Amino acid sequence: MKFNIAVLPGDGVGPDVIKEAQRVLDAVGKRFGHQFDYSPGYIGGTAIDKFGEALPRETLEMCRKCDAVLLGAVGGPKWDDPNASTRPEDGLLAIRKGLGLFANLRPVKMFKVLENSTSLKPEIVRNVDMMVIRELTGGLYFGKPKKRWNTTRGRRAVDAMYYTEKEIERIIRVGFELAMSRRKKLTSVDKANVLESSRLWRQIAGEIAGAYPQVKLDNMLVDACAMRLIQNPSYFDVIVTENTFGDILTDEASMLAGSMGMLPSASLSGIPAGKSARAFGLYEPIHGSAPDIAGRDMANPIATILSAGMMLNYSFGLGREALAVERAVRQVLDEGYRSRDIMTEGMKLAGTVEMGKLIAERIKT
Ligand code: IPM
Ligand code: MG
Fold first, then answer.
1. Is a pLDDT exceeding 80 seen at residue 343?
2. Are 207 and 199 in contact (CB under 8 A)?
């Protein structure tokens, strides 16, 4: 089959890791007989420099014509001025909103060989295998009013956590659908003891639960969830939560897998129901642009490579090919190769390019 992928390398290590993900996709294409065509585009700081905006209209339109989007990272100290009218991160928010990517899937899975590479005890992280689903186009990130202003009694600012029933319902459904395809346990995370938006969230979760009698739903407060993630992370199967909570909890959860450099993500515009269903999506590593190591062959490309794997699965319906990517990554780790972020004594240090090549070589049908 033939697929057209919008490729947005972005800033910092973005271009470094994207190149390796493309290398692995090409290997998949060769082994399984598919053709992946790439349409490059600008986003983030490099787009600000070239076009004066973080998400140029050309980029958004090009993405709309493609089958999926592969993104590196955005941001860097060069564009960090708090008074700047636009920031690289605005590009990320605009593309999520512009493409209707409301469902952000962030799987946190422990590769067994890395169980001694995290900052937690190996017995705590050993069986970690969860899917965090973050609502991505609502809540504090997009709610109005959103502004900073001066008054005679000092400066003020407001962000609003705003949710509609429809927004909550569709993301909760993604939670139930994914729970059905996994261990059938869904934890809905909110702050219903304080926030009205959370009380509505919890109410709707309870209503939808009726349609999924096989799934065990539990509601958990976000502060308790933050604690449980460290205390007993293998408790979780699928977590579904609103935008800001999901942002914070997934950085925390990423440490369970050893490094941010290991974790992929998918941002979908639909509910991935059933094996053959395909959703349009954007795929990116959850790490940032790491400008200090950009262009130095030091970044871990695994998160981006695994993101490309998620693309094969969720947007192209190529489950077998996605599995081949995951297996190739595991094999390279099992053989003792490590990027700098997960390096431990006695292992073989590999740069970004070498890591990409090793994984591409191990893609098997
Ligand atoms: C993420 C990032 C972004 C977010 C930033 C870069 C805007 O932290 O994808 O988790 O907050 O959503
Ligand atoms: Mg984040």
1. yes
2. no
Q: What percent of the chain has pLDDT over 70?
A: 99
All CATH 3.40.718.10 domain ranges of the chain, comma separated, are 1-102+289-365, 119-257
Q: What are the pLDDT digits (tens) for 217-247? A: 999 999 999 999 999 999 999 999 999 999 9
The pLDDT tens digits of the residues spanning 181-210 come to 999 999 999 999 999 999 999 999 999 999
Give the pLDDT score at 273.
65
In this structure, the number of other CB atoms found within 10 A of the CB of residue 123 comes to: 9
What mean pLDDT do residues 38-67 have? 97
**Residue from 11, 80, 92 to probe ligand 1 pocket by mutation (most atoms less than 8 Å from CB):** 92
Q: For residue 18, what are the CA distances in angstroms to 107, 119, 265, 336?
A: 19, 27, 14, 23
Q: Which atom of ligand 1 is nearest to the CA of 250?
A: 10
Q: Is-contact 125 256, C-beta < 8 A?
A: yes
* DSSP track, 73-102: E---GGG--TT-S--HHHHHHHHHHHTT--
Tell me the CATH class for 1-102+289-365: alpha beta
Query: How far apart are the CA of 246 and the centre of ligand 1, in A?
Result: 10
CATH architecture, domain defined by 119-257: 3-Layer(aba) Sandwich (3.40)
Across residues 102-117, what is the average pLDDT?
Answer: 93
The tokens describing 126, both together, are: 């050993």
Residue 278 has pLDDT above 90, yes or no: no
pLDDT at residue 334 in the model: 96
Query: Which residue has the least CA distance to atom 9 on ligand 1?
Result: 286
Task: Please name the amino acid found at residue 103.
Answer: A
DSSP characters over 170-197: HHHHHHHHHHHTTTSEEEEEE-TTT-HH
Q: Measured between alpha carbons, how far is 63 from 83 in angstroms, rounded to an integer?
A: 29
Spatial separation of the C-alpha atoms in residues 169 and 240, rounded to whole Å:
11
